[in-house]
Amino acid sequence: MMSPSDDGQPGRLREGRRMRSIDGGSHASDVLALFREHGELSRTDVIELSGLSRSTVNQRLASLSAAGLLADVGGGESTGGRPSSRFAFQASRAVILTADIGASGFVVAACDLNGVPLVHAERVINVWEGPDAVLSAVDEAFGGLGHDFDVWGIAIGVPGPVEFAARRVVNPPIMTGWDRFDIAAWFAGRYAAPVSVENDANARAVAEARLHHVDNIISLKLGTGIGAGLVFNGQIIRGDKGAAGDIGHTQATMSDAEPRECRCGNLDCVEAYAGGWAIQRELEKVGIHTNTTNDIVALVASGDMEAMRRVRAAGRIIGDAIADLVSILNPRTITLSGQLADCDEVLMSGIRERVYQHTVPLATGSLQITKSTLGELAGVTGLALIAIDALFEPESVDAILEAPPALRGA
């Protein structure tokens, strides 16, 4: 939001506080970006911020208002003549439908054009049932959100490597039947809106980075499986084939343990020691039965010593796995989300111990390792933000101004 001017007039910019100029550009998306960044603006504000002519600004404001993306909210300042109108971005104009799919469940949400979840729901699923079964459950959950939304985008997060441009899962370690499945095409016949597909941990990293204003971040998703999303200098680090951050299927640093088979078919993956399913397996061996990762969290909360020991050991293995990343990438923040993150310090103490032991001091001098405060909505929020970035690219905004995307079922 813009700050009031020194004389208390909210519509005036402080002298010398020209935020940015749109170099040689007069695109509607540039003008829209000013409202998304600063909040309410008058015509005069837009002219000062953009460097565009009054006639061009008037034309852009008229087009964006006609598409429902801006609204005249009144309250402009007067300099003796007719008061200047003020405009505001209308985040409620449409929604992005998002689904954050994990190994054993998913969250769906309808998010406004600021990425804020308006309504959400959770379902238990098994990702190994395959794409048709899981995506059918997602679509059913979308329909059950209970509102006649104007849908301008679909965003799907999955627990595996994603070739982002092709919108497909590629060689996922644990997602049987999903390899190169065309998720976007599956939804194309159901919604007249663009579909994006992203790794679930990447989506969480975007939400953490944007909402907490942190550019360099590693976001760990710790649940049934283990993954990491990387956002550095404001950009997702996906790697050449979308495999960046897949720490769950890197080799665990273990010297005195019997080899453990991972669900991906390899031996001694980090996930085979520290994933929720692996902790369940080890607890079962000592006579402690659990059905879900949440059961492990409940045991830890109740003070069960065996569960606490296993979770603390898992934290050390995860800490070893990310120590090199910390030294190489030098993040400002590491955030933990997912079911196992609810084990709080029992898990986090092990992670901190190994990261600080095996990382150069310069990289950890101001490093923060914290539990995410975004809860279960971190993934759907990040997915919405990624889809919105694409939606408000110049070419997409042109298409919206010509003919807004159709409603569901069109």
Q: What is shown here, in short?
A:
This is ROK family transcriptional regulator. The chain has 410 residues and is of the alpha/beta class. Helices cover 37% and strands 18% of the residues.
Descriptive labels:
alpha/beta, Arc Repressor Mutant, subunit A, five-stranded mixed sheet, Nucleotidyltransferase, domain 5, disordered N terminus
Task: Write up this protein.
The protein has 14 helices and 15 strands. Strand 12 (226-232) and strand 13 (235-236) form a beta hairpin. The protein is globular and about 75 Å long. The chain folds into 3 domains: 1-89, Arc Repressor Mutant, subunit A (Orthogonal Bundle); 94-204 and 378-402, 2-Layer Sandwich (Nucleotidyltransferase, domain 5), CATH 3.30.420; 211-374, Nucleotidyltransferase, domain 5 (2-Layer Sandwich). It has helices spanning 28-38, 43-50, 54-66, 131-143, 183-188, 200-212, 271-274, 276-285, 293-301, 305-329, 345-357, 361-364, 378-391, 394-402, and strands at residues 41-42, 70-72, 86-89, 95-101, 105-111, 117-124, 151-158, 162-163, 168-169, 195-199, 217-222, 226-232, 235-236, 333-337, 368-371. The protein has a 5-stranded mixed β-sheet, sandwiched between helices. The protein has a 5-stranded mixed β-sheet with strand order 13-12-11-14-15, covered by helices on one side. A 3-stranded antiparallel β-sheet has the order 1-3-2. With 410 residues, the protein is an alpha/beta fold. Helix content is 37%, strand content 18%. The longest helix is centred in the C-terminal third of the chain and has 25 residues, at 305-329. Residues 33-82 form the Transcriptional regulator DIP2311-like C-terminal domain. InterPro entries: ATPase_NBD (IPR043129), DIP2311-like_C (IPR054760), ROK (IPR000600), ROK_cs (IPR049874), WH-like_DNA-bd_sf (IPR036388), WH_DNA-bd_sf (IPR036390).
